[in-house]
Design a protein that fits this description.
The chain is of the alpha/beta class and about 375 residues long. The protein has helices at about 1-15, 50-60, 85-90, 110-120, 130-135, 135-145, 175-185, 195-200, 250-255, 275-285, 295-305; strands spanning about 30-35, 35-45, 70, 95-100, 120-125, 150-155, 190-195, 215-220, 240-245, 260-265, 270, 270-275, 290-295, 310-315, 340-350, 355-360. It has a 9-stranded mixed β-sheet with strand order 10-9-8-7-13-6-14-16-15, with helices on both faces.
Length: about 375
């Protein structure tokens, strides 16, 4: 059992290299062991490229015959952009497969494990399953609910405000925390803000402080108020900017489309973008993980309706002490019985800042 844990942990370590790179495919790691020695390793690098199992089998060669294969996710059994991994595993002569979890993708969903068993391979599942699920929480949520996994990030002072009364917010958090946020951006498919955040801060919403690819920038702009001169619509950024709106005036759309941005018309709710509709449409475009970064009203609405799966709060060691300063969430709560309840996952430090990781009790996430 200890050896199994060691090899699955190695597979998880390999899989983490693919986080933020493989979407809409899951990040997967694979290790092949024969006679107590690792003879093959692989991790999925990008959608459309060979899967982790195929890379590990290629490295192992003839040594795969009679070996044990450890993989973080059930091997696929369907023809997509690449052939089924189950066929390659069977052909290689693997004698035992240990999978961290079953694949929720409907075209697999246990059928890969069944195919392996029917070929005479010993199959075991569930080893370090929670860690494997955590690795692909966006993929799992999209496959099971049709919605992306949403992480709400906010930086605030110790007394809970996100800016002064004049709107100044730079910088509440320290440089190390800002680098951590950029790593989060690089690991997500999209970063989302409300138009009020765009108007107040004129952010770039790209990845600068660490190495990584820029996510899709989603601006929730119900009436298309984003100025064309702002950062998210400039050359090099506009091509990965999507404006989500209820506005159907095509002449307004054209102003943004001419700059290279995308315009996505959504259903309206109380005159604003209906967030379930927007999230469903984004999932249909392959967006599985979203970092929600701004808009206290937007965050409050999403939290109220169970659309936020995880919260990351950065607390800078400062106080503002003004009752009129803005808070991270806007709500109409009047009693403690109405307060949103969170389950604390972890509390740590990022430079001088305290970081709190929590999960709302009201969430549609299966992770």
């Amino acid at each position: 059992m200890q050896d199994d844990l060691r090899y699955m942990r190695r597979a998880l370590s390999l899989a983490r290299k693919g986080v933020g790179r493989t979407s809409p495919n899951p990040a997967v790691g694979c290790v092949i062991v024969r006679d107590g020695r690792i003879v093959g390793e692989g991790w999925h690098r990008k959608a459309g490229t060979p899967h982790a199992e195929i890379l590990a089998l290629a490295q192992a060669g003839e040594q795969a015959r009679g070996a044990d294969l450890y993989v973080t996710l059930e091997p696929c059994c369907h023809h997509g952009k690449t052939p089924p991994c189950t066929e390659a595993i069977i052909a290689a002569g693997i004698s035992r497969v240990v999978a961290g979890m079953a694949d929720p993708f409907p075209q697999v969903a246990g059928q890969g494990l069944q195919a392996l068993r029917q070929s005479g391979i010993t199959v075991e599942t569930g080893l370090l399953e929670q860690q494997c699920r955590e690795l692909n929480k966006g993929f799992i949520k999209c496959m099971t609910t049709g919605l992306p996994y949403v992480i709400y990030k906010a930086a605030m002072t110790l007394d809970g405000v996100i800016a002064t009364v004049t709107g100044q917010s730079r910088w509440i958090s320290c440089g190390e925390s800002r680098r951590l946020v950029h790593r989060l951006r690089a690991a997500c498919d999209a970063v989302m803000v409300g138009v009020d955040t765009i108007l107040a801060d004129n952010p770039q919403l790209n990845v600068r402080h660490v190495r990584g690819s820029d996510p899709l920038r989603v601006v929730v702009d119900s009436r298309l108020r984003t100025p064309e001169s702002f950062n998210v619509l400039q050359r090099g950024l506009a091509e990965k900017t999507l404006l989500a709106t209820c506005e159907r005036d095509e002449s307004l759309h054209a102003r943004y489309l001419d700059q290279g941005a995308q315009v996505l018309v959504c259903r309206a709710f109380d005159g604003r973008v209906a967030m379930p509709d927007l999230l469903s449409k984004l999932a249909g475009r392959g967006v599985q993980t979203i970092l929600l970064e701004g808009g206290s009203r937007l965050a409050g609405d999403m939290l109220q309706h169970g659309l936020i799966d995880e919260c990351i709060f950065f607390y800078g060691p400062k106080v503002v002490g003004n009752g009129f300063a803005p808070f991270a969430l806007s709500s109409s709560i009047t009693t403690m019985d109405e307060a949103y309840r969170l389950k604390l996952l972890k509390v740590g430090m990022s430079g001088d800042d305290m970081v709190v990781y929590a999960r709302p009790e009201l969430s549609c996430s299966p992770v």
